[in-house]
Amino acid sequence: MRTKLLLGATIAVVAAVALAGCSSSGRTSSGGSSDDAVIKKGDTVGVALPQKTSANWVLAKQSFEDALTKAGFKADVIYTSDSGGVPDQQRTVANMVTKKYKVIIIAAQDGSQLGTQTAAAKKAGSTVIAWDRNITGTKNVDYYVAFNNYKVGQLQAQALLDGMKAKKASGPYNIELFAGASTDANAGVFFNGAMNVLQPKIDDGTVKVVSGQTDFQQVQTDNWDKGNAQKRMSNLITAHYSNGTVLDGVLSPNDQLALGILTATKAAKLPNPIVTGQDSELDAITRIMQGTQYSTIYKNTDEEAQAAVDLVVSLSKGDKPKGLVTDDKTNSGNGVKTVPYVPLTPILITKDNAVKEYASNADMEAAAKKG
Q1: What's the CATH number of domain 149-298, 3.30.470.20, 3.40.50.2300, 3.30.40.10, 1.10.10.10?
Q2: Architecture of the domain made up of 18-146+302-343
Q3: How does residue 355 score in pLDDT terms, banded at 50, 70 and 90?
């Protein structure tokens, strides 16, 4: 794989962040945790994952099983079925509560739909850890293991501006905005981070959103589905770009939506716009090396899973939290509380640094092989 990339072919750079956190006296004690949740080596840790809509989710199960086993815990890792959706994950979490798991890690299918289940978990004495996506509208979540998602959005927006400037020295630049699913708490954080960078450029006329669609609800993409992104992009082209207006760039929050967007622009025979992404999927790296997609964000699923397991280990030892941030409402506010978490910095990948980042990260090569 490395030789192929150096020749300008493909690599996969998939998911992540390393975090660590903890408590005292072998019990959870931060952020409204239960004093009854004594965690011991050998306990089963429940992990409820969402549907496998991107490569990082495909890798997550094995990442958790490996990390938990190595740390001396048993693992019960369950995906949300493609057909089951939110009710399926709700049942999964409820079953983990029934089994009296002292730790339940949840990557939410819909973070706003788990209030009943997390309340039951806390009543049963479980520690609830939100993983990768926050759980919203409830006090019954103890920790949040995640990336600095606001920073992800900022990186994507700056990459969009840099890519357009490299292609055309000065504006104004015509762009369109896409966001992830409104059911995913991260989607709004990504979008807000991006708009922190883009809004001043919109205000001063450097950038123009030709459709006028700049509100999150207008640009969100149901279920993070690339088909939905393709359809919306096609509609935008028909309405605003079929008369010869140039589309300079598109803010895409991940690689799957980027594919849908690029499929639509290709079908309409438009010149390739600058398109961002996230997840460093194998096909996205291929597109970046070929000059079709401009950027993605590097995250490593193994590291993110390990971070959650490190947190569990800390709780079992009664260690004091290290590096736990408790006041970052932008990234970890869930509407009811600011959930304690440890932020790490995501990495922007473009054609300029893909080879360097790949060559310096053995885990990225391993992710490519898994893919």
Answers
A1: 3.40.50.2300
A2: 3-Layer(aba) Sandwich (3.40)
A3: confident
Q: Give the per-residue SS3 of the chain.
A: CHHHHHCCCCCCCCECCCCCCCCECCECCCCCCCCCCECCCCCEEEEEECCCCCHHHHHHHHHHHHHHHHHCCEEEEEECCCCCHHHHHHHHHHHHHHCCCCEEEECCCCCCCCHHHHHHHHHCCCEEEEECCCCCCCCCCCEEECCCHHHHHHHHHHHHHHHHHHHCCCCCEEEEECECCCCCHHHHHHHHHHHHHHHHHHHCCCEEECCCCCCHHHHECHHHCHHHHHHHHHHHHHHHCCCCCCCCEEECCCHHHHHHHHHHHHHCCCCCCEECCCCCCHHHHHHHHHCCCCEEEECEHHHHHHHHHHHHHHHHHCCCCCCCECCCHHHHECCCCECCECCCCCEEEECCCHHHHHHCCHHHHHHHHHC
Tens-digit pLDDT profile for residues 100-148: 999 999 999 999 999 999 999 999 999 999 999 999 999 999 999 998 9
Q: What pLDDT score was predicted for residue 13?
A: 34
* pLDDT tens readout for residues 58-87: 889 999 999 999 999 999 999 999 899 999
